[in-house]
Specification:
Layout (H helix, E strand, L loop, with lengths): L1 E7 L4 H7 L2 H8 L1 E7 L3 H6 L6 H4 L1 H17 L15 H13 L2 H14 L7 H10 L4 H8 L2 H16 L7 E4 L4 E3 L4 H10 L8
Parallel strand pairs: 1-2
Antiparallel strand pairs: 1-3, 3-4
Amino acid sequence: MQRLAFWFEFASTYSYLSAMRVDALAAEAGVAIDWRPFLLGPIFAAQGWPTSPFNLYPAKGRYMVRDIERIAAARGLAFRLPDPFPQNGLLAARLARLGRDEGWVAPFAREVYRAEFAEGRDIADRTTLAEILEGLGLEPEVCFRAAENDAIRAALRADTAEATALGLFGAPSFVTADGELFWGDDRLEQALAHALTRCTPTSTT
């Protein structure tokens, strides 16, 4: 089965849209999804951006909110921009990195996005994250301790460095096995098609 890397950031509104549909679309296409949490903060900082471009350029930010509202409504999703925006997603990202190792990254990420962008909750609040972990049948304090150890911290930094090396500049981003980059929720279908048509080995018989 072909694989597609789904690079997501918890501060990203458009990643919310992708997170809620990527597994279903990929299953229909016969593509396996590799959920890859990373941090956009260091990537933005390298460009001289101290915050989200949606804050730096207010007109762009207003458009983004209306755009997400329209898309979410069409897909039957709730949307509420949290205050403040962007949220501090560092602990959530570390937990997602732990979940990637332990096999629960996808349901965890979806519930974090639901809390953040459907309910407007603070995902930096350990209570919010604990409720999500408990809902998945996990022990919050065990997960918090594991997510804050040096190994997970280093793994998330390494993943963010890998994202930078791949040329990622925003989220969501999709990278195929042959290194083709697709940016944005509206490129998900194109990324899946490329994974199938360009990454499938041709027969030599």
